[in-house]
Amino acid sequence: MAAVREYLIYGVDDEHKHMWPIHYHLLKNDFLAAIDSIRKGANPMVKDCNGVSAIELCYRMFFKVVNKCVNSTLPLSSKAEKKDATPVVGAGAKKKQESNAVPELHGMADYNMDSNNKDDDDRMTNAQSFTTYVEYLIANHKLVTSSTLQNSLLRRGKGLLAVISAMAERPESLTACKELLLKHIQTLEYPALYASLMEFLFLNSKVYLKKSVPSDDVYAARALWSRAATSDANIKAITEFMSHVAKILEDFCGIFHVDIYSQSLGGCNKVYPGHDRQLQLRGMDVRTIEMLAHMAYVTDKPLLFDVMVLQDYFLQHDGVFRWNDLLSHLVGASSSLKAFRDPLMRRSLRENVGKRMGVPETMPEASVFY
To answer: What is the spatial distance between Cα 267 and Cα 274, in angstroms, rounded to a whole number?
Structure first.
């Protein structure tokens, strides 16, 4: 009966356990056992009966969790809130309804990545609707009750990240890990939840900073984020969650990326086998790159900031935010912000050299954020 129950819940049985042990443990959310199987010699490149390797399954599961964290209202929700929460209208209504369901965080559902197959326009139009939801929850003091679901998402994300790291430690699977990273990074969705929270904070900047600041001011955004978190327990609950999500993304990038030119990243810039001097994630949307760079600066994640700013499609001069103004502030700032100044300075230098040499710009067109 135990085997039948296991199959009904997780979609795996003894055949999975013996033939595809990594798949088996991943689908059961037993990430320590999956890592143990890898270190005992199980090959993460072997495909199961569905034609999916353990590496690819792990990436699918990882980005599925990350997308729930950055582009849904799920982290703001709890069972107690769902009866009372006001409906969200507009483009975010469908996503709000999805968040009301009990999330599937394990089992054969992880083979299904249809939730990520959305066109860019649909993914990029949720910030305004999320802002309405954020405003409602903060006003009604409901964010502090959602920590259980947030912790569940974070534990799962960190566990899957540890499995990916263990796979990348094997020289024979490192190339496959990089190739699948470039494939699955395209499924990373725009961080609309973070964007909506920032929009709410800027709309209420007079409350927290005693003055109104423009939403494209990245330097002020960091101060606004910090001040709001110390002033309101509800805001602190979601800012801490988003900081943890940014840390997961930073550690994920750190598996493959190292900036050998930076002397300000501390232990983050140690060179390990398989690291790229400059990790290029060419499948990412330009707007997602810029918003993640904003998120990295505000939440103090220098390696993630370094990765995003050094992407070819990062729009330092023509983007939504005033990155050159941020650089001007950072030039005279304290040494603690040097890790954010250096990538912007090198980015400016690279673009200036490219213009003098007549290198054509191939940047995609930027879009309006707020």
So the answer is: 17
Compute the distance between CA of residue 345 and CA of residue 326 in angstroms, rounded to an integer: 11
Nearest-CA neighbor of 306 among 366, 226, 249?
A: 249
The pLDDT of residue 233: 83
Q: Tokens representing 143?
A: 């964010």
Which structure tokens are listed for 205?
């900047």
* Token pair in block for residue 185: 């990074």
Q: How far apart are the first and last CA of the chain?
A: 54
Listed in sequence order, the residues at least 6 apart from 170 whose beta carbon sits closer than 8 Å to its beta carbon are 38, 44
Cα–Cα nearest to 48, from 33, 62, 58, 36: 58
In tens, the pLDDT along 38-66 reads 999 999 999 988 899 999 999 999 999 99
Q: Are 274 and 175 in contact (CB under 8 A)?
A: no
pLDDT above 70 coverage of the chain, percent: 68
Its pTM stands at 0.79
